[in-house]
Structure prediction request, 344 residues.
Amino acid sequence: MNKKGFASDNNSGVHPEIMIALTEANKGHTVAYGDDAYTREARKAIQHHLGERADPYFVFLGTGANVLGIGALSSSFHSVICAETAHIQEDECGAPEKFNGIKLLPVETDDGKIRVEGIEPHVKGIGFEHHSQPRIISITQATELGTVYKPEEIKEIAEYAHQNGIYVHMDGARIANAAASLNVSLREITTDAGVDILSFGGTKNGLMYGEAVVFLNAQAPDEFKFIRKQGMQLASKMRFISAQFLRYLSSDLWYQTAQHANEMARLLAEEAEKVPGIEVTQKVEANGVFARVPRDIIPRLQEEFFFYIWDEPQSVVRWMTSFDTTEQEIYDFVGLIRRLVDKG
Prediction:
């Protein structure tokens, strides 16, 4: 068995309840490409959480969801405004630009969240044929720095966007963690806050694979089914994505798993800061901890508990917790930090 670490919630396994759902869905035959009972019921489950108008389309990957969702509402002469730390900017290998032809306009941010004052300088040249046209503001919930947008913060961005004819896209790879952190419904931080299109993630919170592109306050283009197929995100055996979402959303499993991961992150931050020389650099609002750690102990820590360096010049690392992280693992990890710090 591979030893657990704190590198990514993608590194965790599949939640036992999700594995049961997959096993149950594996019985017999059903119609392919989404024309099956699992997909119909999973769509209803998403609509239960996000509103009757929600129009979900299941895909394989988070990057696929972002690329298809953004592409559905834009043309190649459009631009997308996002945080400089956004996944679409930093971690998708240029996929949004390559496949959609759009221009990304990054906004500097200290905490992963963008605000209207940072967005405004990019909303210019409207109708001027020499400028790419601002079309979408993309926000991430929870952010890449582990912080969380409150509903009123999203509403402020959405109101500004809509006043200027701009859509709001949400990368919701960790949306369950954000909702659990705020103790609000999924709808309160999406549909009701003015988000037009959502990349609804599940993989980081216990699913084996699978995400959804969900049109909320924007209508899906009639051609979207063709866009998904051409974008190589139409699953033939879609029931295995749908069955996971159905089990995930038909109970409070999505909330329990996210809440646990968040609690483990808070515990990790609290315990780590008790060690001299460890400084948590961001608010711990979801399941990520960003900390400044003595440079010389990082390689030795990584030998026992793998994690990623976030900002090498500043000696800042990222520790991610998951639905299956235990308190004992936290104490073991922090104990190792303390021993290494004490050794100097």
Q: What stands out?
A: The radius of gyration is 20 Å. The chain is about 40% helix and 15% strand. The mean pLDDT is 97. The chain has two domains: 14-250, 253-343.
